[in-house]
Amino acid sequence: MNFKNSINEYYHYIVYTLLTVTLLYIFLLSSSAKSINFALYTTRNSVYQPSNKFNTKIHGDKLEEALAGASTEDKTVIITIVNKAYVEGDKPMLDIFLDGFWLGEGTEDLIKHLLIVAMDQTSYKRCMFLHLHCYKLETDGVGFIGEKLYMSKDFIKMMWERTRFLGDILKSGYSFVFTDTDVLWLRNPFPRLSHNNSIDLQISTDEFNGNQWSEANLINTGFYMIRSNNRTIALFDKWYTKKDNSTGLKEQDVLQKMIREGEVRNLGLKVRFLDTVYFSGFCQNSKDVRAVVTVHSNCCRRIKSKTADLTVVIHDWKRFMSATENETSWFQWTPHDHCRDSWRH
Protein backbone atom coordinates (compact mmCIF):
# COMPACT_ATOMS: atom_id res chain seq x y z
CA MET A 1 0.00 0.00 0.00
CA ASN A 2 2.81 2.36 0.89
CA PHE A 3 4.46 1.47 -2.39
CA LYS A 4 1.30 2.45 -4.32
CA ASN A 5 1.05 5.75 -2.47
CA SER A 6 4.64 6.51 -3.33
CA ILE A 7 3.94 5.85 -7.00
CA ASN A 8 0.88 8.12 -6.95
CA GLU A 9 2.76 10.89 -5.20
CA TYR A 10 5.61 10.62 -7.70
CA TYR A 11 3.12 10.72 -10.62
CA HIS A 12 1.39 13.83 -9.23
CA TYR A 13 4.76 15.47 -8.74
CA ILE A 14 5.76 14.84 -12.36
CA VAL A 15 2.44 16.21 -13.70
CA TYR A 16 2.64 19.27 -11.48
CA THR A 17 6.24 19.97 -12.54
CA LEU A 18 5.45 19.64 -16.26
CA LEU A 19 2.39 21.90 -15.90
CA THR A 20 4.43 24.55 -14.07
CA VAL A 21 7.22 24.49 -16.67
CA THR A 22 4.69 24.75 -19.52
CA LEU A 23 2.92 27.75 -17.97
CA LEU A 24 6.26 29.44 -17.25
CA TYR A 25 7.39 28.90 -20.89
CA ILE A 26 4.15 30.37 -22.26
CA PHE A 27 4.51 33.39 -19.97
CA LEU A 28 8.13 34.02 -20.97
CA LEU A 29 7.37 33.57 -24.67
CA SER A 30 4.52 36.05 -24.50
CA SER A 31 6.62 38.60 -22.59
CA SER A 32 9.52 38.20 -25.04
CA ALA A 33 7.29 38.75 -28.06
CA LYS A 34 5.84 41.90 -26.50
CA SER A 35 9.34 43.17 -25.73
CA ILE A 36 10.50 42.55 -29.30
CA ASN A 37 7.44 44.25 -30.78
CA PHE A 38 7.90 47.20 -28.44
CA ALA A 39 11.59 47.48 -29.29
CA LEU A 40 10.83 47.45 -33.02
CA TYR A 41 8.07 50.00 -32.56
CA THR A 42 10.13 52.40 -30.47
CA THR A 43 13.17 52.06 -32.75
CA ARG A 44 11.22 52.75 -35.92
CA ASN A 45 9.26 55.61 -34.46
CA SER A 46 12.34 57.22 -32.96
CA VAL A 47 13.89 57.45 -36.46
CA TYR A 48 10.99 57.97 -38.85
CA GLN A 49 7.55 59.47 -38.72
CA PRO A 50 4.67 57.31 -40.07
CA SER A 51 4.59 59.29 -43.35
CA ASN A 52 8.25 58.46 -43.88
CA LYS A 53 7.95 54.67 -43.91
CA PHE A 54 9.91 52.73 -46.49
CA ASN A 55 7.62 51.58 -49.31
CA THR A 56 7.90 47.81 -48.89
CA LYS A 57 4.80 47.29 -51.04
CA ILE A 58 6.70 48.51 -54.10
CA HIS A 59 10.26 47.42 -53.34
CA GLY A 60 9.87 44.38 -51.08
CA ASP A 61 12.94 42.63 -49.69
CA LYS A 62 14.94 42.61 -52.94
CA LEU A 63 15.99 46.23 -52.62
CA GLU A 64 17.15 45.70 -49.04
CA GLU A 65 19.20 42.71 -50.19
CA ALA A 66 20.74 44.74 -53.04
CA LEU A 67 21.55 47.67 -50.74
CA ALA A 68 23.06 45.44 -48.07
CA GLY A 69 25.20 43.68 -50.68
CA ALA A 70 26.70 46.93 -51.97
CA SER A 71 26.88 48.84 -48.70
CA THR A 72 29.96 49.94 -46.81
CA GLU A 73 30.15 49.26 -43.07
CA ASP A 74 28.54 52.63 -42.33
CA LYS A 75 25.60 51.90 -44.67
CA THR A 76 26.71 54.06 -47.60
CA VAL A 77 26.09 52.99 -51.20
CA ILE A 78 27.06 54.36 -54.63
CA ILE A 79 23.98 54.41 -56.85
CA THR A 80 23.43 54.92 -60.57
CA ILE A 81 20.29 54.38 -62.63
CA VAL A 82 20.20 52.96 -66.18
CA ASN A 83 17.75 51.83 -68.84
CA LYS A 84 17.99 50.09 -72.21
CA ALA A 85 19.38 53.18 -73.92
CA TYR A 86 22.42 53.10 -71.59
CA VAL A 87 23.40 49.45 -72.20
CA GLU A 88 23.01 48.98 -75.96
CA GLY A 89 25.21 50.05 -78.85
CA ASP A 90 28.83 49.58 -79.94
CA LYS A 91 30.11 51.31 -76.80
CA PRO A 92 27.16 51.93 -74.47
CA MET A 93 27.13 54.54 -71.72
CA LEU A 94 27.29 51.95 -68.93
CA ASP A 95 30.52 50.50 -70.36
CA ILE A 96 32.11 53.95 -70.56
CA PHE A 97 31.00 54.64 -66.98
CA LEU A 98 32.64 51.42 -65.79
CA ASP A 99 35.80 52.26 -67.78
CA GLY A 100 36.22 55.25 -65.48
CA PHE A 101 36.39 52.98 -62.43
CA TRP A 102 38.86 50.71 -64.22
CA LEU A 103 41.16 53.50 -65.42
CA GLY A 104 40.80 55.94 -62.54
CA GLU A 105 43.09 56.42 -59.55
CA GLY A 106 41.84 54.56 -56.48
CA THR A 107 38.46 53.83 -58.04
CA GLU A 108 38.61 50.13 -58.96
CA ASP A 109 37.62 48.80 -55.52
CA LEU A 110 34.68 51.22 -55.32
CA ILE A 111 32.74 49.02 -57.77
CA LYS A 112 32.13 46.69 -54.82
CA HIS A 113 29.87 49.41 -53.40
CA LEU A 114 28.14 50.35 -56.67
CA LEU A 115 24.45 49.49 -57.01
CA ILE A 116 23.05 49.70 -60.54
CA VAL A 117 19.32 50.33 -60.60
CA ALA A 118 17.78 49.09 -63.85
CA MET A 119 14.52 50.56 -65.13
CA ASP A 120 13.80 47.73 -67.57
CA GLN A 121 14.59 44.05 -68.13
CA THR A 122 17.25 44.65 -70.80
CA SER A 123 19.42 46.84 -68.57
CA TYR A 124 18.86 44.51 -65.62
CA LYS A 125 20.05 41.49 -67.63
CA ARG A 126 23.12 43.44 -68.76
CA CYS A 127 23.92 44.37 -65.17
CA MET A 128 23.59 40.77 -64.02
CA PHE A 129 25.80 39.62 -66.91
CA LEU A 130 28.51 42.00 -65.68
CA HIS A 131 28.26 40.46 -62.17
CA LEU A 132 27.50 43.77 -60.50
CA HIS A 133 25.12 44.65 -57.68
CA CYS A 134 21.80 45.04 -59.50
CA TYR A 135 18.23 45.99 -58.66
CA LYS A 136 15.30 46.18 -61.06
CA LEU A 137 13.06 49.15 -60.32
CA GLU A 138 9.36 48.51 -60.86
CA THR A 139 7.71 51.66 -62.18
CA ASP A 140 3.99 50.82 -62.01
CA GLY A 141 3.63 50.17 -65.71
CA VAL A 142 5.36 53.42 -66.78
CA GLY A 143 7.85 52.75 -69.56
CA PHE A 144 11.34 54.24 -69.26
CA ILE A 145 13.06 51.99 -71.80
CA GLY A 146 14.44 54.21 -74.58
CA GLU A 147 16.34 57.47 -74.58
CA LYS A 148 14.40 60.36 -73.09
CA LEU A 149 15.44 63.57 -74.80
CA TYR A 150 16.59 66.26 -72.39
CA MET A 151 13.64 68.30 -71.03
CA SER A 152 11.05 66.24 -72.91
CA LYS A 153 7.89 65.27 -71.02
CA ASP A 154 9.13 61.69 -70.52
CA PHE A 155 12.56 62.93 -69.40
CA ILE A 156 10.99 65.09 -66.68
CA LYS A 157 8.74 62.21 -65.61
CA MET A 158 11.73 59.90 -65.36
CA MET A 159 13.65 62.40 -63.21
CA TRP A 160 10.76 62.63 -60.76
CA GLU A 161 10.49 58.84 -60.59
CA ARG A 162 14.18 58.80 -59.75
CA THR A 163 13.62 61.32 -56.95
CA ARG A 164 10.83 59.24 -55.42
CA PHE A 165 12.96 56.10 -55.48
CA LEU A 166 16.04 57.76 -53.96
CA GLY A 167 13.86 59.17 -51.20
CA ASP A 168 12.77 55.61 -50.40
CA ILE A 169 16.42 54.58 -50.07
CA LEU A 170 16.98 57.31 -47.48
CA LYS A 171 13.96 55.98 -45.59
CA SER A 172 15.51 52.52 -45.58
CA GLY A 173 18.40 53.95 -43.54
CA TYR A 174 21.09 54.07 -46.24
CA SER A 175 23.18 57.12 -47.11
CA PHE A 176 24.42 57.25 -50.68
CA VAL A 177 26.44 58.90 -53.38
CA PHE A 178 24.21 59.27 -56.40
CA THR A 179 25.96 59.51 -59.76
CA ASP A 180 24.55 59.79 -63.24
CA THR A 181 25.98 57.15 -65.58
CA ASP A 182 27.44 59.92 -67.74
CA VAL A 183 29.84 60.88 -64.94
CA LEU A 184 33.39 59.54 -65.25
CA TRP A 185 35.05 58.78 -61.91
CA LEU A 186 38.73 59.49 -62.62
CA ARG A 187 39.75 59.56 -58.96
CA ASN A 188 38.26 58.35 -55.70
CA PRO A 189 35.86 61.16 -54.69
CA PHE A 190 35.63 60.32 -50.98
CA PRO A 191 38.81 62.16 -49.94
CA ARG A 192 37.31 65.30 -51.52
CA LEU A 193 33.91 64.83 -49.85
CA SER A 194 33.59 66.09 -46.29
CA HIS A 195 33.14 63.47 -43.58
CA ASN A 196 31.63 66.02 -41.21
CA ASN A 197 28.35 64.48 -40.00
CA SER A 198 26.76 67.91 -39.72
CA ILE A 199 26.77 68.26 -43.54
CA ASP A 200 23.62 66.60 -44.90
CA LEU A 201 24.06 67.15 -48.63
CA GLN A 202 27.11 67.72 -50.85
CA ILE A 203 26.06 68.43 -54.41
CA SER A 204 27.84 69.11 -57.70
CA THR A 205 27.45 72.36 -59.59
CA ASP A 206 27.18 73.32 -63.24
CA GLU A 207 28.95 76.57 -62.38
CA PHE A 208 30.81 77.10 -59.11
CA ASN A 209 30.91 80.66 -57.80
CA GLY A 210 33.90 80.16 -55.48
CA ASN A 211 31.94 79.76 -52.22
CA GLN A 212 31.14 76.20 -51.15
CA TRP A 213 28.31 77.41 -48.87
CA SER A 214 26.69 79.85 -51.28
CA GLU A 215 23.07 79.05 -52.15
CA ALA A 216 23.55 81.03 -55.36
CA ASN A 217 25.60 78.18 -56.89
CA LEU A 218 24.01 76.54 -59.94
CA ILE A 219 23.47 72.93 -58.81
CA ASN A 220 23.47 69.65 -60.74
CA THR A 221 21.72 66.57 -59.32
CA GLY A 222 23.88 64.28 -61.47
CA PHE A 223 26.33 63.81 -58.61
CA TYR A 224 25.76 64.28 -54.91
CA MET A 225 26.35 62.67 -51.51
CA ILE A 226 23.50 62.63 -48.98
CA ARG A 227 23.19 61.29 -45.45
CA SER A 228 20.11 59.41 -44.29
CA ASN A 229 18.43 61.30 -41.46
CA ASN A 230 15.12 62.94 -40.62
CA ARG A 231 16.14 66.20 -42.30
CA THR A 232 17.08 64.66 -45.66
CA ILE A 233 13.99 62.43 -45.64
CA ALA A 234 11.84 65.52 -45.04
CA LEU A 235 13.66 67.25 -47.92
CA PHE A 236 12.87 64.46 -50.40
CA ASP A 237 9.26 64.25 -49.24
CA LYS A 238 8.75 67.97 -49.68
CA TRP A 239 10.69 68.01 -52.95
CA TYR A 240 8.59 65.23 -54.46
CA THR A 241 5.28 66.80 -53.39
CA LYS A 242 6.09 69.76 -55.66
CA LYS A 243 6.06 67.51 -58.74
CA ASP A 244 2.44 68.16 -59.77
CA ASN A 245 2.75 71.93 -59.34
CA SER A 246 5.97 72.26 -61.34
CA THR A 247 4.85 71.68 -64.92
CA GLY A 248 7.72 71.95 -67.38
CA LEU A 249 10.37 71.91 -64.64
CA LYS A 250 12.71 69.01 -64.00
CA GLU A 251 13.44 67.96 -60.42
CA GLN A 252 16.79 69.77 -60.47
CA ASP A 253 15.08 73.08 -61.24
CA VAL A 254 12.68 72.58 -58.35
CA LEU A 255 15.45 71.75 -55.88
CA GLN A 256 17.41 74.79 -57.09
CA LYS A 257 14.39 76.95 -56.35
CA MET A 258 13.93 75.37 -52.92
CA ILE A 259 17.57 76.13 -52.08
CA ARG A 260 17.48 79.72 -53.25
CA GLU A 261 14.16 80.46 -51.52
CA GLY A 262 15.48 79.12 -48.21
CA GLU A 263 13.20 76.07 -47.97
CA VAL A 264 16.11 73.65 -47.65
CA ARG A 265 17.72 75.81 -44.97
CA ASN A 266 14.42 76.02 -43.08
CA LEU A 267 14.34 72.22 -42.91
CA GLY A 268 17.60 72.42 -40.98
CA LEU A 269 19.82 71.03 -43.73
CA LYS A 270 23.44 72.00 -44.18
CA VAL A 271 24.41 71.92 -47.86
CA ARG A 272 27.88 72.05 -49.36
CA PHE A 273 28.31 72.94 -53.04
CA LEU A 274 31.15 71.12 -54.80
CA ASP A 275 33.92 72.97 -56.63
CA THR A 276 34.18 72.23 -60.36
CA VAL A 277 37.97 72.15 -60.04
CA TYR A 278 37.39 68.70 -58.51
CA PHE A 279 33.85 67.75 -59.59
CA SER A 280 33.82 69.12 -63.11
CA GLY A 281 31.68 68.82 -66.20
CA PHE A 282 31.27 70.02 -69.73
CA CYS A 283 29.49 73.16 -68.47
CA GLN A 284 32.62 74.23 -66.60
CA ASN A 285 35.77 72.17 -67.18
CA SER A 286 38.27 71.66 -64.42
CA LYS A 287 41.43 73.54 -65.32
CA ASP A 288 43.56 71.29 -63.12
CA VAL A 289 43.80 67.73 -64.40
CA ARG A 290 46.00 66.88 -61.39
CA ALA A 291 43.05 67.61 -59.08
CA VAL A 292 39.97 66.62 -61.07
CA VAL A 293 37.91 63.81 -59.54
CA THR A 294 34.84 63.43 -61.76
CA VAL A 295 33.87 64.64 -65.24
CA HIS A 296 30.17 64.95 -66.04
CA SER A 297 28.84 65.29 -69.60
CA ASN A 298 26.35 67.94 -68.51
CA CYS A 299 25.28 70.71 -70.85
CA CYS A 300 24.75 67.99 -73.46
CA ARG A 301 21.48 66.94 -75.10
CA ARG A 302 21.77 63.40 -76.48
CA ILE A 303 23.24 60.10 -75.29
CA LYS A 304 25.10 59.62 -78.59
CA SER A 305 26.84 62.96 -78.12
CA LYS A 306 27.64 62.21 -74.49
CA THR A 307 29.23 58.84 -75.27
CA ALA A 308 31.29 60.37 -78.09
CA ASP A 309 32.71 63.16 -75.95
CA LEU A 310 33.18 61.00 -72.84
CA THR A 311 35.21 58.60 -74.97
CA VAL A 312 37.41 61.57 -75.88
CA VAL A 313 37.74 62.40 -72.16
CA ILE A 314 38.99 58.86 -71.54
CA HIS A 315 41.57 59.29 -74.30
CA ASP A 316 42.60 62.62 -72.73
CA TRP A 317 42.95 60.92 -69.35
CA LYS A 318 45.13 58.17 -70.80
CA ARG A 319 47.25 60.81 -72.50
CA PHE A 320 47.67 62.64 -69.19
CA MET A 321 48.52 59.46 -67.25
CA SER A 322 51.26 58.51 -69.71
CA ALA A 323 52.70 62.04 -70.08
CA THR A 324 55.88 63.31 -68.49
CA GLU A 325 55.67 65.91 -65.73
CA ASN A 326 56.74 68.61 -68.17
CA GLU A 327 54.05 67.59 -70.69
CA THR A 328 51.26 67.67 -68.09
CA SER A 329 51.98 71.33 -67.33
CA TRP A 330 50.33 72.38 -70.58
CA PHE A 331 47.59 69.72 -70.62
CA GLN A 332 44.18 70.81 -71.94
CA TRP A 333 40.93 68.93 -72.43
CA THR A 334 39.83 68.29 -76.00
CA PRO A 335 36.79 70.48 -76.86
CA HIS A 336 33.43 68.74 -76.39
CA ASP A 337 32.33 69.25 -79.97
CA HIS A 338 29.67 66.53 -80.12
CA CYS A 339 27.84 67.90 -77.10
CA ARG A 340 28.10 71.46 -78.36
CA ASP A 341 26.60 70.41 -81.69
CA SER A 342 23.81 68.39 -80.01
CA TRP A 343 21.92 71.63 -79.32
CA ARG A 344 21.73 72.48 -83.01
CA HIS A 345 19.45 69.57 -83.91
TrEMBL record:
Transmembrane residue ranges: 12-30
UniProt KW Transmembrane helix keyword: yes
Nucleotide-diphospho-sugar transferase domain span: 110-310
Keyword flag Cell inner membrane: no
Keywords carried by this UniProt record: Membrane, Transmembrane, Transmembrane helix
InterPro entries on file: At1g28695/At4g15970-like, Nucl-diP-sugar_transferase
Record-given protein name: Nucleotide-diphospho-sugar transferase domain-containing protein
Source organism (scientific name): Capsicum annuum
The organism's taxonomic lineage, starting at the top: Eukaryota, Viridiplantae, Streptophyta, Embryophyta, Tracheophyta
